[in-house]
Each structure stands twice: as C-alpha cells, then as structure tokens.
Write a structure and sequence with these properties.
Length: 88
Amino acid sequence: MTSERQASTPLRIDARDLLCPEPVRQAELAARQVGPGTLLLIEVTDPAAPLDLEAWCLRRGHTWVEARGQANGSTTLSIRTGSKDSTP
C-alpha cells in the first residue's frame, strides 16, 4: 500500500477472527497509507466490529458506507477514507 494508491481502487482488509481492537487498528493503518476517498472493504467476524468501526469513522472523519453479511458468516464493512488531516 502506498499513498499513490488510486481512490477508485478498493482496498480489501481481512480482519476475520480478529477481536477488538484489532479490526480498528487494521483500518487505521490502512487509512494512513491510502489517499482520501479510498474505499476500504474490511471483512470481519467479530460481532462488535461494525459498531467499533462506525464509531471510529465518526471520530476520524471517514464515511461509513455499509455493512453487508456474507454467506460464510463474516461481514464486509465498507468505509470511504476522509482527508489525510482527519487521521492524526
């Protein structure tokens, strides 16, 4: 991942089997490395992760797009990154 990554290319993050706060840490690291407007697709199995990541979006200035359940029992969370200034 580099800051040169195009905002139109989604970044997939596999956070399955990780418990809080790891999915949030994974999202934070990714958001720091990609450009504003990048779509993060975070696959999680922790039932608290959608709430944790939605709160993280509000605190950091990112946009919560959706949470979608998958056939394998995981949930894919879609988050659009905000500006670089929104992630300290």
